[in-house]
Specification:
single chain; 4% strand; globular
């Protein structure tokens, strides 16, 4: 561990002045907040009489916890940072005269390589559990729970495909282009609630997250205004969000569960845009003072270290949780005897979080090398058409895996089809350990 810290410290000291350390900090914090929220809200109740372990989402049991999601829903920040990072990457690609295919190959492989390993891992686990006679419904639940974090990567993959086009849209029309996305999301929500066009609501996966991604372009171009103006924008966004909740048809929770009648996230609603703009205004107003704090070597080293394995930590945190739940079940329901939401239950949360962290660290250290695999310059990148088609296949596979899970039945199309989509899509994008070389620079934007 000390060796890893030393390596991170070396990279931290060598950081060029041009790098925006605040973007790295926000990326790390946004992912860590999501993980904390998942670990805090996902639990179970053990019945000693029937020896059954029933999974429970605390959000469904503890009513006031819906307000906690206003702080834990930080996916807008991730997309904002993604937009900033993609703007830097696109500018670099233009300076080096890289083609769309050359640019896209690197971006997709950094996303799909660690993701493919996770899906293959769970396909194998599901298959073994199926052979062991575990009911398919339980296998599907376990795999779905573990793969839930991958949902946003499905849409983010599509956002990356569109990044060059959306960036030109931003450069041509500025904030006017942002209003197009916001307007589209408003129209979709209106149709969703007024005409019950639920099918159209799914298009908001594009409009909402494209809008957040666009804010990253604004950040990159420095078109933000003064801190006072940014705080005013944040306040207006917060008032708008409150009005949508208390005067409109939207629920309080900024995260939801599959059983919710109306969810702010499934599919996304304009409430997430309001929340994202609030977060954007507040965080951008704080950028300069935090940038000064990040000049401290220790804090910046910690940020570098976390970012070096951030995708691994995110992808595997729910797998670790599922594994710990299985161990607790085998230990006669150890830790799952308290009523969810009770004082006793809350008092055990620090221990629960500590145990998950201890288990996740070695997994992250072992698998984070997958984040540092890049396409070898000796190989010719796939063509643009193949990359786009492969990304669509992989994105569809990711979405279905997170929505349906895997049951290990190799004869079932719904199971093998998901894995096949992921593998074919990843291969089309050039994901192949044989053709990849480890990058000495790490996962840099």
């Amino acid at each position: 561990m000390m060796n890893i810290w030393s390596q991170a410290r070396t990279l931290a000291i060598a950081t060029p002045p041009s790098r925006n350390r605040y973007a790295d900090l926000l990326r790390a914090l946004s992912i860590l907040f999501v993980i904390l929220g998942h670990w805090l809200m996902t639990t179970a109740v053990y019945d000693k009489t029937s020896q059954t372990l029933t999974p429970v989402l605390a959000l469904d049991v503890v009513d006031w916890s819906a307000w906690l999601t206003w702080g834990f829903q930080v996916m807008p920040i991730f997309f904002i940072v993604g937009g900033y990072s993609n703007a830097i990457s696109l500018a670099s690609a233009r300076r080096r005269n890289l083609s769309y295919a050359q640019w896209l190959t690197g971006r997709l492989q950094r996303l799909l390589t660690p993701l493919t390993v996770l899906v293959v891992f769970w396909a194998m686990v599901a298959f073994v559990l199926n052979l062991a006679g575990i009911p398919e419904a339980q296998i599907r639940f376990f795999s779905q729970s573990a793969l839930v974090p991958t949902w946003f990567l499905a849409i983010y993959t599509m956002i990356v495909l569109l990044a060059p086009l959306s960036h030109r849209f931003w450069q041509r029309w500025g904030y006017g282009s942002l209003l197009v996305y916001v307007g589209a999301a408003v129209v979709v929500d209106t149709a969703f609630f007024a005409f019950d066009w639920t099918w159209l609501g799914w298009s908001n996966y594009f409009w909402v997250w494209l809008a957040m991604h666009h804010l990253g372009f604004a950040w990159h171009d420095g078109r933000l205004g003064s801190p006072r103006k940014l705080l005013a924008i944040a306040l207006c966004a917060l008032v708008t969000l409150s009005a949508l909740i208390f005067l409109g048809p939207y629920p309080i929770a900024m995260a939801g569960s599959p059983g919710d009648e109306v969810s702010n996230t499934l599919p996304p609603k304009v409430t997430l845009i309001a929340l994202g703009v609030f977060q954007f205004g507040l965080l951008m107003a704080l950028e300069k003072p935090v940038q000064r704090v990040l000049q401290r070597v220790s804090l910046w080293t910690a940020t570098v270290l976390i970012n070096s394995m951030i995708m691994t930590v995110y992808l595997w945190h729910m797998t670790v949780l599922v594994g710990l739940m299985a161990l607790c079940y085998l230990a006669d329901g150890l830790g799952f005897g308290a009523t969810v939401g009770s004082l006793e239950w809350w008092s055990t949360r620090p221990l629960w979080l500590a145990a998950l962290t201890v288990l996740l660290v070695p997994v992250a250290l072992l698998l984070s090398r997958l984040e540092h695999l890049t396409f070898s310059g000796k190989d010719r990148p796939p063509g643009a058409a193949r990359l786009v088609l492969g990304a669509v296949f992989a994105g569809l596979g990711i979405a279905l895996a997170s929505l349906l899970g895997l049951n290990g039945n190799i004869w079932e199309v719904a199971n093998t089809g998901i894995v096949a989509l992921m593998l074919v899509g990843a291969y089309a994008c050039g994901v192949s350990l044989r053709r990849l070389t480890r990058s000495s620079e790490g996962a840099r934007s």
